[in-house]
Each structure stands twice: as C-alpha cells, then as structure tokens.
Amino acid sequence: MTNCLVVDDEAPARALLMEHLSTLPGFTVLACLDNAVDAFTFLQANPVDLAFLDIQMPKLSGLDLIRSLKTRPRIILTTAYREHAVTAFELDVLDYLVKPITQERFMRAVSKYLHAQNNPELPSPIPSRYDEMYMFFKVGRDQTKIFLKDIVFIEGLGDYIKVHTKERAYVASEKLGYMEQKLPDDKFIRVHKSFIIAWDKLLSYNPDQVTLVTDILPLGRFYKGDFFRKIQTGNVCLSEAKGS
After folding, report:
1. In CATH, what number is assigned to the domain containing residue 114?
2. Pair 63, 45: CB distance under 8 Å
3. What is the C-alpha end-to-end distance of the chain, expressed in Å?
C-alpha cells in the first residue's frame, strides 16, 4: 500500500491528480490539500510515502515546503512552469510534471516511484548532478533544451537574452535579471549589467575584465565586489585555470 498526499491550490489540478490516482491499485490518497502550510502540518503527523506537490502556491511554495522538511516522502512536483526544473533537480525530487498532466506522463512518474522503491540503492531517476541539469529556453516558436554545463555566458538584450555556448548562441525570450535569480549561484555570477558568466568557463580575470574560454567580457564596477568576494571565499565551482 502506498499512502499519497496531493497538494495544489487549484481545484481542477487536484481533481485531475485524484482521477489519475484512482486508476492505480494499491495507492491511497490520505489527504488532498490546497496549500503547503496545511501539508507541512499533515506530514508531521501522518506517514506519507508519495506526495504530489504543486510549486506555485500562496504563503508557502512547494519548493519552500520541501526545504522545510527534515524527513520527507518521495516527491513528484507538479507545475505549469518549466523554469523551476533546475531547483527541483537540486532538491532531488523524484520527478517534475508540467501541467496539463496526461495519464501517460503521470504513469511514467509513478513507474519511477515504483522503480525507486524496488531499488532503494539506486540514485533518483531525476538528474541531480550538475552535468545533467538543463533548462528550456523559448527560441523563436520552439522551447529549446540547453544543458547548463554547456553555457559559457548569457548576454542581456533588453527583453531578450543571448545564451552563448561553445558551439553557437541562442536568442531567447527572457530577461537577464530573471536568469540571475534562477541559475544556481555557485555555478553562475553576474559580472556586468549585460552579462552572466559560468564560473567553470572562467580562465582568468583582472580588475577590468574576465576572460572566458570563448570571449573576453568587461567586469562592471557594480559587480566587482561580489565577484572578488566569491573568488576569495572559494564559494564557487571552478574547473578551469584561474588568473589573479
């Protein structure tokens, strides 16, 4: 028997998950809640094996709920937004479902849960290593998958960004400030009002510029303090040679 918890602030989304779960023998929904605060309280008092958890909720987000739990069940995140995938990977959730959730995609997520239960020594099927992390960027009409390890730097172009890899550059519909918030800060840093760089693509630096594996970029005066502070404290992930 698998005890489940469904948490989503939207009634149609809760109903759809309940409908999907009703087709599975051996899965019991202990509670169906509309907010993460009540979910936190429920999890303190009840044995839950698998939680379906929405991300965007009032007062407390699904991601904040996960961070608040000392012990937690297996978690499958449900969301209408793809951009939280990187954070989800870091939190080692079991799977990440983008709404609307089809029965076929739902069953694949449940299969991951069953596989993990039968093979507890295996790592989670969802990528948790940095070299497996990726984001989808809106390039033209397409959602283009780009692995974070391939990004050298990101250039701000007003309401757009240009994502530079060693092979090519992608112009995507997004703002640089938003990317600064979403990218892992031990892997990327903003060095200029127009540039975010990947730490592991940094070859050398001086007070005025940074040299990457593909380009030389200016180091803006408003960003120097944070840049040098992280260099000095070692709170970065560098894999290339660094200058002084």
Report:
1. 3.40.50.2300
2. no
3. 59
